[in-house]
What we know:
By secondary structure, this protein is of the alpha+beta class. The chain has helices at residues 3-32, 35-39, 49-65, 72-99, 105-113, 127-141, 153-174, 193-208, 214-220, 224-252, 261-310, 330-336, 340-343, 357-361, 410-450, 454-485, 497-508, 532-548, 580-585, 594-599, 607-617, 651-658; strands at residues 316-319, 325-328, 373-378, 384-393, 402-408, 493-495, 517-521, 528-530, 556-563, 566-573, 621-626, 632-639. The chain contains 22 helices and twelve strands. The strands form three sheets. The chain has a five-stranded antiparallel beta sheet. Strands 7-9-10-12-11 form a five-stranded mixed beta sheet. It is elongated and about 145 Å long. Residues 118-123, 182-189, 360-371 and 645-650 have low confidence and may be disordered.
Amino acid sequence: MPPSTALARALARSSAAASCLVGLLVLVGWALDVMVLKSMGAALPAMRPSAALGLLLGGAALGLRLPAATSVHRHRLGTLLALSTALLGAASLVDGVITGGNGGLDAMFLHLLGEDGFAPPGIRPSPLTALCLMLLGPALALVDRGHTQRLSWSDALVALTLMAALLGLNGFLLGPLVTPAAVPFFQERSMGLHTTCVLMLLGVGTLCARPHLGLMARLTRDTLGGFVARRLVPVTLLGPPVLGLTLVVMHLTGGLSHDAKFPLFATVVAAGGATLVLLAARALDVIDTERMRATSALAASEERFRTFLDTAPDPMVVVDATGRVRFANAEAERVFGYRREALLGRDVALLVPSGLRAAASTGDTPGNSTGGRMVSGQRQDGTCVPLEVRLSPLEGEDDATRIAILRDVTERRDLEKLREEYVGLISHDLRNPLNTINLRAHLLQRALHERKLEREGHMAQAIIHNVEWMSTMIEELLEGSRLESGRVNLRREPRDLGRFLEEVLERDVPPDARERFRLHLADPLPPVPMDAARLERVVTNLLTNALKYSPQGTPVDVRLSAVHDQAVVSVSNQGAGLSPRDAARLFDKYYRTEDGRSADGKGLGLGLYISRLIVEAHGGHIWVESEPDRGATFFFSVPLEVPSARPESDSEPLRQRAS
């Protein structure tokens, strides 16, 4: 909460309490016939009972309306008291016109309190007091009907109240300046000083009841207008009363002759006007200093931003809503061959003929794990350059200004070409000889079996086993390379995932271990679009790992459920579990746990890594939940419909629901 708002709320509470306290003390004074309480001071005239009751009702109404979230009954009671204040003010005003203030309403109050008349008699009550109460009542009733930008009826009524009270205060203080009468000063005025001050305080408290609405919002908000208003409004309103009080003191002490009153008053008013101008100038100087400091900080921040862009290793351009280049860094100059000055104000199609709007429509957002969009750029000499485009809106900009990162992927293309050549080398130059060795080893084994050479037959079987192991490793390397390149075309077909799991258990699990598996199927799911051959590889990997790393005879639970728009498969075992470090890295390339190395020394650590690539190619996620000595549960999800690209962060709610 801003300090000005907190001060306004405190002032509203203080105003309500002071108004109630003064009104109550005056009424007690009339009831007990204590003159000091009636007049709130020995030299001041007595406050009328009707005015005291009005202050008490108004203060109570303000106190009930102060909480922002008040109850219905409290709100209605506050409104009733506010309307009672207005009614009492109107009745006092009519009473003053008809009876002159010496009978009627106040006489009725005095009769109820056991009083017979006023002391001293003959002083007419000021109509300003009744007018202020009549205006304050509706203002308190409408205090919640304000607006942050416009003045409300409540503000207008309070402003009229303050003008009337200020008129009474200035008349009280400046009245002696225009008359040479020698009657006691405090008896010359019919509206008492205490009455005027409390009414002004109650009016200000009404404005402060909702500091974020209407007139007070202009004073409390942290803007140029609020800054100037908070410094000038108090001086403007309190200047004349302070001047009048000074002159009153001089008048009472005899230090001011009647002939010098007006010249001194005019001189002080002129000095006060000059003081206001100087205060306004000082306020504007402070604002201008803050503006210059903010401008300097903004310029320094912009310079740092430009330096950051200039030193970036990738070409970067800032493009406005019309597609024109507003900034280009040094790397963009080097890659495209244009000077920076030649690019500014030109259409971005000069660099990317296909434009950037298509890149923005592909869903490329910060944090998207799918990467940017591949486009072809054009250099100044007309040659083409492969680019990966990433678009990000500039924070704080509301005109669709974007920063485009145009990464030159020429080297990446060359590396991908080398990888394809490497994959071809493995495929043709290693796999084909292994197939020949495997065929010859089977023929040799059959010949040895026919000749009943058991020892030599076991040697041939060892050759076949190792050839199959090498073929499996080569296939894993090839599959991982294909998936990493992102050029795998999944052969999706709608399949019943529950029936698919039953078939995998029947086909890929050894018969002697099949009884350990327990399949739990949820409600029937719609057919899931999937590449059955590759997804079978994922399920088989999880099933064989569950058998390998759990004690003999313990059950393995396989579950299928639906979470949001995903089908989730989980495989739970009762093995030794995983440490947090192993669980975090289990799906990394070539990573193997200590137990994995000891249980199977021939693996490459690619099984779960390839499983992750396959699941992510389907648009799903794979993860593990485990604690040491409490088993492990592996999950993977696949979408019920063919998905579009989406951020990796979407997997977290899915994991929470699945677990």
